[in-house]
Amino acid sequence: QIQVDNGPEFTSKALDQWASEHGVRLQFIRPGKPVDNAHIESFNGRFRDECLNQHTFRSLHDAQQKIEAWRLDYNAARPHSALGYLTPAEYREKHQPPTAQIANLCVVDRLG
Questions:
Q1: Domain Integrase catalytic: where (predicted)?
Q2: If I label 39, which of 21, 28, 45, 84 is the partner at 20 to 30 A Cα–Cα?
């Protein structure tokens, strides 16, 4: 399932066909209610303000490089309020069991 707004890029026949072919259900938010998709609206605002509006893209390759650099910073190095102001890596390290524990749990599960 993918939650989308009612913009033309999400109400097109092409997307509807793609979703149908791939078994994906499109869940539309209420028209005129961006609060239904607040985390995406927040992300889009940050992306626009911090990346798109800050750069002049001289080519497709230049745009890909600058956008990828921003994405890596956003997804790996930047603290997020939703994660208690930890970076994603810090959050993962703090909340994910060590690999050895995961392996042991898998063995126990298999042995019953």
A1: 1-96
A2: 21
Cα separation of 34 and 11, whole Å?
16
Token pair for 75: 């997804």
Cβ atoms 73, 51 nearer than 8 A? no
CB atoms within 10 A of CB 51: 17
80 and 107 inside one domain: yes
Q: DSSP of 2-13, one letter per residue?
A: EEE-S-TTTSSH
* Pair (45, 28) in one structural domain: no
Retrieve residue 32's tokens.
């005129």
pLDDT of residue 112: 44
Asked whether 19 and 9 are in contact (CB, 8 A), the reply is no
Tell me the pTM: 0.63
The span from the CA of 19 to the CA of 50, in Å, is: 31
Task: Encode pLDDT of 77-91 as tens digits.
Answer: 899 988 999 998 899
Whole-number pLDDT of residue 85: 94
Domain with 28 in it: 1-32
